[in-house]
Specification:
The relative contact order is 0.19. The chain has 130 residues and is of the alpha+beta class. The longest helix has 35 residues. Helices cover 34% and strands 32% of the residues. It is elongated, with a radius of gyration of 18 Å.
């Protein structure tokens, strides 16, 4: 009987810690978008969540190569993942840049950007290397 109570307390404690950590990550990601979206800089890394044509969700990494009043020029990440993996922030294909207008960036921020490769794409985090 005592072992069951200890297990229950341990399970509840781990669950509370996990929930607090996930909430912290969510708040930090939203804060990074609020901080950096209005003033993009060369080198910022945008983590983009989108659905592919089969309906699977992937995270793409785009590095800002150039920022202008019309929009941003990105270098796409060489890899994509099913979740956010910081290791992938180091590998970008700078030979194949693409640009996105300010209107498209606002759609990305709101989670409503669509094109041939991405459905319901949204920004989940912006990383700025200090």
């Amino acid at each position: 009987m005592m072992a069951r109570k200890k297990f229950l307390y341990l399970f509840i404690g781990i669950s509370v810690c996990l929930a607090a950590y996930l909430y912290y990550v969510k708040v930090e990601r939203a804060d990074s978008i609020d901080r950096y979206f209005a003033r993009p800089q060369t080198g910022d890394i945008y983590k983009i969540k989108s659905d592919d044509e089969e309906g699977e969700t992937f995270v793409h990494y785009w590095k800002v190569m150039e920022a202008s009043d019309q929009g941003l020029v990105f270098a796409p990440g060489k890899l994509k993942a099913w979740s956010s993996v910081d290791y992938l922030q180091k590998h970008f294909d700078e030979i194949l840049p693409f640009s996105i207008t300010k209107d498209e960036l606002l759609q990305l921020k709101n989670g409503s950007w669509n094109n041939a490769q991405h459905s319901n794409a949204s920004i989940i985090e912006i990383v700025r290397k200090q």
